[in-house]
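Need a sequence for this fold. Nothing fancy.
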C-alpha cells in the first residue's frame, strides 16, 4: 500500500498527504477535509429517548464563514451534517478566526429538539450557545456554557424550532471554530433517514475469509485473494517493492515476504548510508486484498514470525478501501495497525489507530513486550473490531483496548465504520526504524502461517 502508519510518540506517517496538514494537526489548525460519497451512520447519544431521531443529517446548513484552502479544502458547513466523521466545517482563517463564529442547520420543519452532539476539532469553543429559531433570523438560547472542553460534547436541550445554531463566543485558541460533526436529535422536523451501520459480527463469529498459504514452494500468493503492490516506499524507506519474487510460498504452509540487499537499476530512494547511493539498494514485498476482500468489522488475525534486524519494519495492517475506491488520501481513510515491529526494538510490537484527528506520531495505540525477540517464533496478532470499539491482542494478551465512546470524548472522531482491506509488507529503513547498518543481516524473511477473518 501507499499509506503507512506510525506509532504513538515515535512514528512517522507512511503517506505524507501534505506537510501543511501535518503541521496544522499539531498546531490545532483545521486540516484537509476530503468529501466522501459514503455517509457512515452514527448512533444516537447515550441516554437518548427511544422516540428521538437524528434530525440534522443531510440538511441545509449555513455558517458565519468557512475555510477553503490547502489545509482545509471545502470545509463548508454541510460537512458537519454529512455523518462522515473524516470531513468537517471550519471557519475561514481570513475573517473567521475571531469571535463570534457560528454554524446553523435547517431541520426542514418545526421540531422539538432534545439533544445536540458536537464533535469538535482542536479548534473548539470554550464558550458557546445552542440557539433555536423559527425563521433562521430571530434566535433564542436553549443552552449556554462557558466551560466547553472540546472533543465530543453531548448537550441536553429543551425547546422547539426549525433552525438550530451553535453560536461560539470564545475560541479555545488563536485559530477558529471547527466541527467534525454537529448532530441534532429530537422529534418532528423533516428528517432524512441516515444509512445504517454495518451489522456487528455474529456471536459466536464464524470464519468468513482465510488464506492458509498452502501451495507449492516458490508459487506466488493466491491471486484470487491478494494483489501485489509494487513501487517505492514512504517515510525515507530504502526498499523497492517488487511485483513478484519477494512474496512467495515456502511449500510448508507459509507465505514468505523476503527483504534482500538487491539493487534496482533506474530506481530512486533516499541516500543509503552504507553505499552512499540514491539507487534503491533493497527489495521487498507488499501485498493487499483490496477489491478481492474488503470488509467492515470482525476478528482479523494472522500467525506471523517477523523479520527482525536493524532497519527492518514488518507490518500486518488495514487501510480504508476509500483510499482506492474514492481516491481519498491518508489519514482520512482511517488505518488499523494490527502489528508493527522495528528491528532495533527486538522484543517490542505495536498496535495503533490513525485518523484525521490522530495520526503519525500522534496515532492512538500502545506497545507490547514479548518475553523473547519477536523474530524468534510465530505469534498470533489480532484485532477484534465492531461498532463499539476494538481490542488488539498478541497471543490473546491484550495490547490495546479502544472504546469508541471514550475515543470520541478524549481523542477524536471514530472513522472505522466502513470497508477496509488487509496489507502485509516489510519495509527496509525509514524514519522510524532507521536504515540498516553494518550489523544488519540480509536476506530477511517474514513468515505468515495464516490470515483469518471471522464475523
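Here you go.
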Amino acid at each position: 500500500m501507499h499509506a503507512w502508519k506510525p506509532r504513538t510518540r515515535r512514528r512517522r506517517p507512511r503517506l505524507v498527504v501534505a506537510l501543511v496538514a501535518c503541521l496544522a494537526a499539531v498546531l490545532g489548525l483545521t486540516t484537509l477535509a476530503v468529501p466522501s460519497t459514503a455517509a457512515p451512520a452514527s448512533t444516537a447519544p447515550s441516554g437518548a429517548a427511544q422516540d428521538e431521531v437524528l434530525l440534522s443529517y443531510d440538511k441545509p446548513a449555513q455558517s458565519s464563514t468557512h475555510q477553503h484552502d490547502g489545509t482545509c479544502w471545502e470545509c463548508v458547513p454541510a460537512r458537519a451534517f454529512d455523518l462522515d466523521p473524516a470531513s468537517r466545517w471550519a471557519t475561514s482563517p481570513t475573517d473567521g478566526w475571531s469571535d463570534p463564529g457560528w454554524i446553523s442547520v435547517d431541520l426542514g420543519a418545526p421540531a422539538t429538539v432534545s439533544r445536540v452532539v458536537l464533535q469538535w476539532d482542536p479548534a473548539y469553543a470554550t464558550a458557546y450557545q445552542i440557539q433555536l429559531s423559527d425563521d433562521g433570523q430571530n434566535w433564542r438560547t436553549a443552552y449556554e456554557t462557558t466551560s466547553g472542553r472540546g472533543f465530543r460534547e453531548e448537550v441536553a436541550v429543551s425547546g422547539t424550532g426549525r433552525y438550530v445554531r451553535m453560536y461560539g463566543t470564545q475560541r479555545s485558541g488563536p485559530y477558529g471554530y471547527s466541527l467534525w460533526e454537529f448532530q441534532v436529535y429530537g422529534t418532528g422536523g423533516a428528517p432524512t433517514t441516515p444509512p445504517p451501520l454495518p451489522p456487528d459480527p455474529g456471536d459466536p463469529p464464524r470464519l468468513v475469509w482465510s488464506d492458509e498459504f498452502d501451495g507449492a514452494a516458490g508459487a506466488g500468493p493466491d491471486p484470487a485473494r491478494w494483489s501485489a503492490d509494487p513501487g517505492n516506499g514512504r517515510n525515507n524507506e530504502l526498499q523497492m517493492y517488487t511485483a513478484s519474487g519477494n512474496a512467495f510460498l515456502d511449500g510448508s504452509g507459509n507465505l514468505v515476504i523476503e527483504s534482500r540487499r538487491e539493487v534496482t537499476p533506474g530506481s530512486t530512494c533516499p541516500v543509503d548510508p552504507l553505499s552512499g547511493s540514491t539507487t534503491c539498494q533493497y527489495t521487498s514485498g507488499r501485498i493487499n486484498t483490496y477489491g478481492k476482500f474488503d470488509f467492515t468489522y470482525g476478528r482479523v488475525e494472522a500467525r506471523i514470525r517477523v523479520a527482525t534486524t536493524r532497519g527492518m519494519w514488518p507490518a500486518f495492517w488495514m487501510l480504508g478501501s476509500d483510499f482506492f475506491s474514492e481516491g481519498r488520501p491518508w489519514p482520512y481513510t482511517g488505518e488499523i495497525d494490527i502489528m508493527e515491529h522495528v528491528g532495533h526494538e527486538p522484543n517490542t510490537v505495536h498496535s495503533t489507530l490513525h485518523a484525521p484527528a490522530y495520526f503519525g506520531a500522534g496515532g492512538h495505540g500502545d506497545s507490547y513486550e514479548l518475553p523473547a525477540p519477536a523474530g524468534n517464533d510465530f505469534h498470533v496478532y489480532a484485532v477484534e473490531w465492531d461498532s463499539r470499539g476494538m481490542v488488539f491482542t498478541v497471543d490473546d494478551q491484550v495490547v490495546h483496548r479502544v472504546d469508541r465512546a471514550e475515543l470520541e470524548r478524549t481523542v477524536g472522531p471514530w472513522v472505522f465504520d466502513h470497508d477496509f482491506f488487509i496489507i502485509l509488507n516489510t519495509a527496509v529503513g525509514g524514519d522510524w526504524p532507521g536504515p540498516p547498518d553494518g550489523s544488519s543481516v540480509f536476506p530477511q524473511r517474514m513468515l505468515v502461517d495464516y490470515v483469518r477473518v471471522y464475523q
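For context: The longest strand covers residues 101-120.
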